[in-house]
Design a protein that fits this description.
single chain, 166 residues, Aminopeptidase, eight-stranded mixed sheet, 8 strands, 30% strand, globular
C-alpha cells in the first residue's frame, strides 16, 4: 500500500494553491505534478471562503495527500464541512490520473476516517459515489463502508450513499 501523509490546507496553503503550482510547490517544499486535480480551483476557492466565514471549521475542509517516497502531491481530499448535529461528516477524495491503481485512494480514505473519528462528536463518516461498480465503490468497500441507499442528485443523477459508523 502507498505511504501517504495528509497536509492540512489552512488559509495560507489554500492561497498558495490558488496562486499556482509553482507557488504551492515552493511553499510546501513538495513536487507538484501537472495535472494533480480534476476538481479544479473552484473547490479550493469554496474551502477558503468557508474557513474565512468560520475559522473554527478549518480542519473540516481540505487536505493534500503527499506520497512519502517521492514527496509528491497525488490529489486532494477532505471533508464537506464540520460534523452535523447528528455527528456525521462526509468525505471526498481524488487521485491524480498518473497515480491511480496504487492503493492511494484506499489509504486516503482510511486516513480521513481515522482523523474524523478522533473527534468525539463524529458518529458516522459518509461518502457518495456514482450508482455503478467503479474504483470509488471498491475503495469504500475496502474501508468497510456500507451502501445505505440510492438517491437522485441534481448534478450527478443517481448516486449511492455510503456510511461507516464509529
Amino acid at each position: 500500500m502507498a505511504n501517504i501523509r495528509l497536509i492540512h490546507c489552512d488559509r495560507p496553503v489554500l492561497e498558495a494553491i490558488l496562486v499556482g503550482n509553482d507557488t504551492l510547490a515552493d511553499y510546501l517544499k513538495i513536487e507538484v505534478p501537472e495535472p494533480w486535480t480534476e476538481f479544479g480551483l473552484p473547490a479550493f476557492n469554496y474551502a477558503l471562503a468557508r474557513i474565512q466565514e468560520a475559522p473554527e471549521t478549518t480542519q473540516w475542509w481540505t487536505y493534500l495527500p503527499i506520497l512519502e517516497g517521492s514527496n509528491t502531491l497525488v490529489g486532494s481530499c477532505g471533508y464537506k464541512g464540520a460534523p452535523s448535529a447528528e455527528g456525521m461528516v462526509e468525505i471526498g477524495y481524488e487521485v491524480a490520473r498518473d497515480f491511480r491503481g496504487q492503493g492511494i485512494a484506499t489509504e486516503i480514505t482510511r486516513l480521513l476516517v481515522e482523523r474524523a473519528f478522533q473527534d468525539t462528536r463524529v458518529n458516522t463518516v459518509q461518502a457518495h459515489t456514482l450508482a455503478e461498480r467503479n474504483a470509488s465503490v471498491r475503495v469504500l468497500e475496502k474501508n468497510r463502508f456500507v451502501r445505505i441507499k440510492e438517491i437522485h442528485d441534481d448534478t450527478d443523477g443517481l448516486i449511492w450513499q455510503w456510511q461507516l459508523p464509529r
